[in-house]
């Protein structure tokens, strides 16, 4: 993922009408373990409505790494956020102000991080000449939805297609088997008071059957039901989620199952998934109970105004 440091900015969500506060998002900096040891650290601040959940950890985080992992709470107080909590055996106190997160423990350990803005390296990726473009993307131009079956979804003037909640899923007119690359971009609304599967839920289905989950899982210890997971089969190897209200990407390779003349499976399907440029599944076998060698792509309607753009396939 591409990253750069940002200042204190308030962003208006046009899709939801909510103000995304200046504190939610990613941070990078240092953890001071003691007077001699300083380690690179990462922070994730998650908006949960009545509070913010703040996760801070050193990188890489391994069982033998002499680092730290803490989770504390934040409360907005005007132009700053006050941080406090018990974690890792110590009490922590600090604040976020003007894009800087600073917090100390009663034992003298400290984090100091700067807010950054991450972007998927494949956001806005142009389709190759041999691609079938399913949803054209041109900034500031309303896309053509002619390759899709659900007339209830909305084409927006920013170049994206938005779910109309409760209007049902949207499928492609065309069916697909093997896919060398499926590129799809999605934007998740901030739903701060929702939890778990209620937080910006959708899914991308290959052959109308094999789901890669779409969910606001930023800052979570994820499961197979979180963003990038193969629902009830495998969780993503890495939580590569960006904050909500950020364009994210999937680049998927799919090898359809091989079936004999009677429909019995000779070879199971396999899938590789890149989420925001990070490989989260690598040629993973899918042992689902029922299989399809071909079918439309499906985007799930789970009742949330999620947006999609720039969708294309190389077969």
Count structural domains: 2
Rounded average pLDDT: 91
According to DSSP, the number of beta strands is 25
In CATH, what is the class of the largest domain? Mainly Beta
Q: Shape, please? A: globular
Oligomer: single chain
Could you outline the blueprint of secondary structure elements for this entry?
Layout: E1 2-5, E2 11-12, E3 19-20, E4 25-32, E5 38-47, E6 52-58, E7 69-77, E8 80-87, E9 90-97, E10 100-105, E11 110-119, E12 132-135, E13 154-155, E14 161-162, E15 170-176, E16 179-187, E17 202-206, E18 210-214, E19 247-255, E20 258-259, E21 265-267, E22 270-275, E23 278-285, E24 295-299, E25 307-314
Antiparallel strand pairs: 1-11, 2-3, 4-5, 4-11, 5-6, 6-7, 7-8, 8-9, 9-10, 10-11, 12-25, 13-14, 14-25, 15-24, 16-19, 16-25, 17-18, 17-24, 19-22, 20-21, 22-23
């Amino acid at each position: 993922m591409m990253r750069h440091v940002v200042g204190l900015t308030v962003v208006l969500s046009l899709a939801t009408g909510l103000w995304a506060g200046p504190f939610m998002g990613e941070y990078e900096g240092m953890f001071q373990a003691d007077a001699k040891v300083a380690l690179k650290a990462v922070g994730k601040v998650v908006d949960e409505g009545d509070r913010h959940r703040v996760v801070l950890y050193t990188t890489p985080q391994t069982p033998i790494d002499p680092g730290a992992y803490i989770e504390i709470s934040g409360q907005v107080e005007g132009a700053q956020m006050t941080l406090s909590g018990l974690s890792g055996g110590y009490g922590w106190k600090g604040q976020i102000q003007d894009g800087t997160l600073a917090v100390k423990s009663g034992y003298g350990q400290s984090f100091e991080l700067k807010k950054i803005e991450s972007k998927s390296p494949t956001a806005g990726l142009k389709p190759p000449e041999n691609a079938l473009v399913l949803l054209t993307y041109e900034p500031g131009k309303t896309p053509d939805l002619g390759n899709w079956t659900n007339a209830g979804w909305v084409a927006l003037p920013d170049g994206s297609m938005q779910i109309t909640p409760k209007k049902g899923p949207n499928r492609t007119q065309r069916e697909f088997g093997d896919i060398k690359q499926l590129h799809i971009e999605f934007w998740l609304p901030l739903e701060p008071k929702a939890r778990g599967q209620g937080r910006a839920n959708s899914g991308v289905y290959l052959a109308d059957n094999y789901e890669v989950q779409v969910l606001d899982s930023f800052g979570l210890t994820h499961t197979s039901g979180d963003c990038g997971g193969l629902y009830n089969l495998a969780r993503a190897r890495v939580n590569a989620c960006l904050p909500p209200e950020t364009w994210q990407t999937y680049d998927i390779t799919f090898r359809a199952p091989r079936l004999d003349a009677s429909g019995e499976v000779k070879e199971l399907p396999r899938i590789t998934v890149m989420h925001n440029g990070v490989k989260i599944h690598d040629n993973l076998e899918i042992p689902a109970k029922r299989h399809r060698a071909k079918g439309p792509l499906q985007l799930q309607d789970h009742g949330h105004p999620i947006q999609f753009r720039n969708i294309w396939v190389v077969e």
